[in-house]
Amino acid sequence: MKPILAEVITIGDEILFGQITDTNTQWIGAELTKIGIRTVRKSSVGDTREAILAVLDEATQRADLVILTGGLGPTKDDVTKVTLCEYFNTTLERNPEALAFVTKFFESRGRQITEINARQADLPLNCTYVANDWGTAPGMWFNENGTVYVSLPGVPFEMKNLMQYRIIPMLQKHFETPVIVHKMIRTVGIGESFLAETIADWENNLPAHIKLAYLPHFGQVRLRLTGTGTDSIHLKEEIDAQVQAVLPLIQPYVFGYDDDELETVVAGLLAEKNWMLATAESCTGGFVASQITKYSGSSSYFVGGVVSYSNTVKVSQLGVKPETLAQFGAVSEQTVREMAEGVRKVLGANVGIATSGIAGPNGGTPEKPVGTIWIACSTEKQTVARLLKLGPFREQNIQQTSVYVFNLLRQTLLDEL
Questions:
Q1: Domain MoaB/Mog: where (predicted)?
Q2: What angle do CA 60, 62, 63 make, to 5 degrees?
Q3: Are residues 228 and 156 in the same domain?
Q4: How far apart are alpha carbons 283 and 359 in whole angstroms?
């Protein structure tokens, strides 16, 4: 079956200027994948006739489906509709159905429609009007020379509803699409290159219709298997078999699948043991605790934390010995062990985790350069510490340290289950 290829284009100077974040293309790509349409390119252009015409010319060369978002307002800076008229050699005309909808939209809110509002009903003559129940800017569907073009408002709420309830059903009716199935293996504690070497033989023997992608992010690597075929049940069975084949090679590093997050996996292990967790943070400044409490229900397994940024707090609140700090320093195995043990005891938790290091970009020494970070995990049975040697970037070091300390907690909990 011939694959259906899509290109997604966002229109708006505000995106190029960095004034707003484009979330539309990510969401659209995910939704198209669900119905077997593969996105081959995403791009953003400004609110100019020349830019829109150029990107449409390029997209037409490689895509069966072109989706545009943005530039559909009634003001002069929104030029998408006029440019589409030029591209398709047609004219704007006031669509009676669209006008009736926009009029009703304003009247239902106790407002009179103005001429500027009415311009929302001005549509290219050759498009199919797609009603927008969530706003005033309608969607537009064009079918030209075998390529489908869809123009949607840029407001994410309106775009998503139009796609989900209007455009997706229309696409499924118009195109005969293959089945695309994704499976994500979530790993932590192994670098992308080492992971690739470990599974090289397995990867080389994957069937042609199943592709593998490596998606690294802050100490984690997601392995994404993507299969294409005609039978979703058979395809899922094939991918599951491939997962079972690779697991013996990487099992110690696998913490979950698909939408699993490391923090939620740890939460499940804590719940399984009916344990409470406490945190002691120096270099991460409360980031670890924030990663725990961003999930609803975390009070059932998280008792609290101490941000012991100064040595004074380490001693007075966590019970770190002054002589430990004097002899080994705040960034040391001895100190981070006492921090983890201290917070566990002080807050009455079953397990305590701790971080202490030099996040940077300043503060390093030849003996302890920036990126030198100690983490620890303490239970009544054991206290385990690990040395991390990270890079010079503060934010990255904080996020990576969070990942590594959660993984140490995960390993400790598995060891004691």
A1: 7-174
A2: 70
A3: no
A4: 6
pLDDT (tens digit, 9 = 90+) per residue, 295-341? 999 999 999 999 999 999 999 999 999 999 999 999 999 999 999 99
Between the alpha carbon of residue 163 and those of residues 52, 150, 160, 208, 291, the distances in Å are 21, 10, 5, 31, 32
CB atoms within 10 A of CB 130: 18
Q: How many domains are contained in the chain? A: 3
The pair of three-digit structure tokens given for residue 130, joined into one six-digit string: 């797609």
Q: Which residues contact 192 (CB under 8 A, 6 or more apart)?
A: 214, 216, 221
Q: Are 66 and 59 contacting, i.e. CB atoms less than 8 angstroms apart?
A: yes
User: ∠ CA 191-197-198 to the nearest 5 degrees?
Assistant: 85
Buried b or exposed e, range 222-252, using 16+ CB within 10 angstroms: bbebbbbbeeeeebeebbeebbeebeeebee
Residue 140, classed as helix, strand or coil, is strand
Rg over CA atoms, the chain:
28
Q: How far apart are CA 193 and CA 65, in angstroms?
A: 36
List the CATH number of the domain containing 236: 3.30.70.2860
d(CA 38, CA 21) in angstroms, rounded, equals 23
Paired strand residues for 144: 147
Strand pairing of 139-144 and 147-152?
antiparallel
Range of the domain at 336: 262-416
What is the pTM assigned to this prediction? 0.78
Q: What is the pLDDT of residues 85-140, one digit of tens each?
A: 999 999 999 999 999 999 998 888 888 888 888 888 999 999 999 999 898 899 99
Based on the fold, state whether residues 277 and 253 are members of the same structural domain.
Answer: no
Kindly give the residue spans of alpha helices, DSSP state H, lying in 140-231. Answer: 156-162, 168-174, 192-198, 200-204
